[in-house]
Structures are given as structure tokens and as C-alpha cells.
Amino acid sequence: MERWGTGSAVKKSERIRRLDERLRAAGVLHLREAAEHLDVSEMTVRRDLATSPELFSYFGGYILPAGSERASGYRLDVELDAHAEAKELAGRAAAGLVERDDTIFIDCGTTTPWMIDHLPITGRLTVITYAMNIAARVASRPNTSLILLGGLFHASSQTFSGEEALRSLERLGISKAFISAGGVHAQHGVTCSNFHEVPIKQAVLARAGIAYLVVDSSKLDKIKPAYFARREQFARLITDADAP
């Protein structure tokens, strides 16, 4: 791990510069990771963040670029009707990969909810999610257990984030994960609009037995601000072209 010496030996201006540099490379940083990178206490990092609101935002234990939630411009209610037919086709194709006793993770967004009406209704399916719009639809399904990851609520995307959600994921097994994205690019990887979603997406990718990327075709060759994965981390890319 890269170290820069003790906190007293590094000026605040230099810490902020290095933190900004690291954040630009990573997209999102946990407070603990930032403290270890700078070799200072988490309280020192918090104080540095407070003096630099033009550079940093802080949500639920994570450091983001300043105004990243506002800058993303993403609102679930606005995106809901865009490319609706393509989203339904992609969601239906993804649901076809689910077996009756699977434990699956369903990501947030406006494409993955289309999976729910096509999931198996026999057996004992378990659905894990951090998205309210997914949870609300799963809750009324027969023979389906719902695990909703909690934390700080983000109204624009109807999702939760933070340490609570990540700790819960550490205790869960996931047979199949269905991950959404705002952009899929051959060179620049898989991206989304909201930085607070990145840690959960990455944690799910690390734990899932198999992961599928579920997007409508309008997301192909697009790049959004928050990078979270390489295309090769997914067993399959599912779009509206895959629907029966």
C-alpha cells in the first residue's frame, strides 16, 4: 500500500491534492481507504473534506467528487418511460436465466424491474436488492423471499447506500446477479450515473456466483461518470436483442 508519511509531516494542501488525485482515478473512495492512503486518521480526512466542499462530497462513509449526485442528472421517475419497450424485452430475457430456487441480486434502475413479472413463481426464490422500486414489486410475489439492503436513502434513484448495506452483503450468498448500467463501452468499461451505487455493485460482483449485465440497447457505446466494472467481469451482456 502506498504511504505518504505521518499526518504531521504532510501539509493539508498536499493531502487534499493527493486525495483529489486518488479520487479522480477511483471515482469513489471509502473514508477508511482515504485515511490509509494518506497515512492519517479518519478524523483528519473528515476535516480536510470539510474545508474543500468545492472538491469533495461525503455520503454514508464514502467520498465522492463534489456535487456528483446533482451533476449526474439522473432521476428514476424521468428515466422510467425512456426506451420502455426495449427495457421490457431486456428484463424478460434476463428473467429467463433465473431458476426456481436461486438466490439472486437485482440491481436498481428502470430496466431490471421488468424482470420481476417473469420470474419463477414455484420453488423458493430469494431476491436481494437495495432499490425501493424493485423491493415494492417483489414484496407481493408468491414463494419469494425479499432481502432489502438498508442505509442512506437516495430519492433520485430510489436506492440505499452505505456501510450497513455492504456489511449485509458480506453475510449473503448470491447465485446470480443482474446488474444494471447507464453505459457500456468496449474501451472504457461499464459505468453508471450515481457514484453511491458503485461500492454495492462492486461488492455484489465480488460475491456472485455468476453476474449478468442487463441494459437496453440505448446504453451501448455510452459512458457515464461513475465507472464500476470491466465488461469481462460479466458472463453475459443481456439487451433487448436477446428477448425471445
Automatic annotation (TrEMBL):
**What is the designated name of this protein?**
DeoR/GlpR transcriptional regulator
This protein's UniProt keywords: DNA-binding, Transcription, Transcription regulation
Q: This protein's superkingdom?
A: Bacteria
SUPFAM superfamilies on file: NagB/RpiA/CoA transferase-like
Q: Which InterPro entries match?
A: Carb_Metab_HTH_regulators, DeoR-like_C, DeoR_HTH, NagB/RpiA_transferase-like, Tscrpt_reg_HTH_DeoR_CS
Residue intervals of the HTH deoR-type domain: 12-64
